[in-house]
Specification:
The complex is a heterodimer. Chain A is mainly alpha-helical. Chain A is built from three helices and no strands. The termini of chain B are far apart. The chains are: A mainly alpha, B mainly alpha.
Chain lengths: ~100, ~170
């Protein structure tokens, strides 16, 4: 087997990003849409760590820490919004929340 | 050995991700997402990012996933599980995924030579590297000197997120 290079990590990261994108675009359940966003953020982190390792530079890992911080904030606020939404509309399906739709 | 571990973790990551977006029950999705995140943590370990490995386990799997499971428990998802799980946007999703995938694949084949990504094996890159302090010390040195201001801004961001989520989840706003 050929050794693992940065390109392998980039390909894995792209695959994870695309799976997350398909999840965001096709699922109706808001909880699972939020989970797909977590997948996308993890794809970004794999990318950052791969380049950090290849260039032997720790800055990529710092950025990955900031991305994780953002993911935590996003999950907390998103799930808070979901609870408020469920309390008001009794639904967790994204396309039933259509008040602002044309 | 490293190649084998990479492919094992890659299977964990991608299999968990595919299960996450296809399961009907949100709890099954959450458990698949945990599998995927464990795989990502393993990839961090393969690339000598030990601190991020620990952060991934403690924060993602211990923190965010417990948050998700709490919300799944609070919100009644039984009704939603009986409904249709996918909206009819398969065509748009496939077009988006194909376009982005082709773009990135094109740039990777173009840029692989320029960046010498394919030529330099990851393991060989660090044989000549000087003996450095541990990963945690290296991160701390940079984080608390060069990135001190972004670090403080991130803490303010977390404070805003905490206040915001508490206000959102309050009974009467």
């Amino acid at each position: 087997m050929q050794p693992v290079t940065t390109v392998h990590y980039l390909a894995l990261s792209v695959a994870l990003l695309l799976i997350g994108t398909v999840g965001v675009l096709t699922r109706r359940n808001i909880v699972i849409i939020l989970m797909s966003i977590e997948l996308i953020l993890n794809a970004v982190n794999i990318n950052l760590i791969a380049f950090s390792h290849q260039l032997q530079n720790v800055n990529g890992q710092i950025f990955a820490i900031f991305v994780i911080t953002d993911a935590v904030a996003e999950a907390a606020v998103g799930l808070g919004i979901l609870i408020a939404l469920f309390r008001n509309k009794e639904t967790v399906l994204a396309d039933e929340v259509n008040l602002l739709k044309w | 050995m490293e190649t084998f571990s990479f492919y094992a973790f890659a299977v964990l990551v991608l299999g968990g991700a595919i299960l996450t977006i296809t399961r009907r029950s949100a709890v099954h999705s959450a458990i698949s997402l945990i599998v995927s995140l464990v795989g990502v943590a393993g990839l961090y370990l393969l690339q000598q990012a030990e601190f991020l490995f620990a952060v991934q386990i403690v924060l993602y799997i211990g923190g965010i996933m417990v948050l998700f499971l709490f919300v799944i428990m609070l919100v009644n998802l039984d009704e939603a599980a009986k409904e249709r799980q996918f909206n009819g946007q398969w065509l748009i999703a496939l077009i988006c995924a194909t376009v982005v995938g082709l773009q990135v694949a094109w740039f990777m084949t173009k840029g692989a030579g320029a960046l010498k990504l394919a030529q330099v094996p990851v393991a060989a890159a660090q044989t000549g590297a000087p003996v450095s302090p541990g990963n945690v010390e290296a991160i701390a040195d940079v984080l608390f000197s060069e990135y001190l201001l972004p670090f403080e801004v991130a803490s303010v961001l977390l404070l805003v997120a905490v206040v915001g989520s508490v206000v959102m989840a309050k009974k009467r706003i």
